[in-house]
Design brief:
By secondary structure, the chain is of the alpha/beta class. It is elongated and about 90 Å long. It folds into 3 domains: about 45 residues, 434 Repressor (Amino-terminal Domain) (Orthogonal Bundle), CATH 1.10.260.40; about 130 residues, Rossmann fold (3-Layer(aba) Sandwich); about 160 residues, Response regulator (Rossmann fold, 3-Layer(aba) Sandwich), CATH 3.40.50.2300. Helix 5 runs parallel beside helix 12, helix 8 runs parallel beside helix 9 and helix 10 crosses helix 11. Strand 3, helix 7 and strand 4 form a beta-alpha-beta unit.
Amino acid sequence: MAKLTPTSQVTMREIAEQADVSIGTVSHVVNGTAVVRPKLKLRVLKAIRNLGFQPSALAQGMRRNRIRMLGIIVPDITNPFFPAVVRGAEDVAFNESYRVILCNTDNKPAKEALYVAELRSFRASGLLIIPAAGSDIVSELSPDPSGIQRVVCIDRCPAGWTGDAVVALNETGAYQATKYLIQSGHRNLALITGPSLLANSVERLNGFRKALSEARIAVSPEFIQEAAFDSRSGYEAGTRLLRMLPRPTAILACNDMMALGVLRALHERGLRCPEDVSLVGFDNLEFCEYTSPALTSVYQPGYQMGAAAARLLIERINGLQDPPKRIVLETELKVRNSVLPIASAADFPSQSVRPSKRKAKPVLAG
């Protein structure tokens, strides 16, 4: 029989004919469904090499009712925080012989719903989801026959979500950042928060308010601006704040992309950071070290979040029946050059905020 190239459509019948075995024997060798005598197996493997046969992972997965593929759904792949999450998940998945397919929703619930439905129809083994604002995945995901949903939410959870999740200590991170600004003497503090429909936005807002409440500092409603977790909306919110009289002496932006927009707004108005306005971000993205000034930011471990979520998901795929888990990772304030103590700082004595030097570690909650 003539040798076929790897691009040819090789059938199990052709392999069986060349190896002089039954089609069933070829199937057992290819799919690992039964033990085959060594001599027969070697003949089949030799025929496979000669014919350039490539087994279909999709077909094998369909027969097993599960494909070794994980779906990862993110709201905005252009946000540098999310690729770190994806990288952590992909590294764990690859080491466990799973492959990943990445879907970007543009923060649109309808697009998210379409991806969820399609990935489940493809019989992906499980899903890792960073929900869009206003996500309705709770109603979109029908119960798994095992009673355990092979879905893990990362970074934020939609309303009503009771399944597995991996998140960060958002409230604590924002609280520590706000306290640091207060202890630096700032009293006119502003916040640029993310969409109010996102749980992590609400948690960071709560941390900001908690620190102000403890210090007995009132905040004007207009000093809390809602934006969209991107640089453009951060620029627009920052511009609004800088036009106010009196303007804030310090701004906490609830992610680094919005902080980047604030830096642009400051530059356009001829203001300096931190001499005129101090600024703190959230995420501690790589560019924070290269902005001018270097940006003080709250670190949250994106890579570790993705890795922990993938490990938990694979445990579920392998049969873990424990109650839903919520893994919470610690945050840490990274102090750089974008905050300047103001002259009145001495009038407000307090303990200094000393960021923990410990690596982020998970805190398990039920």
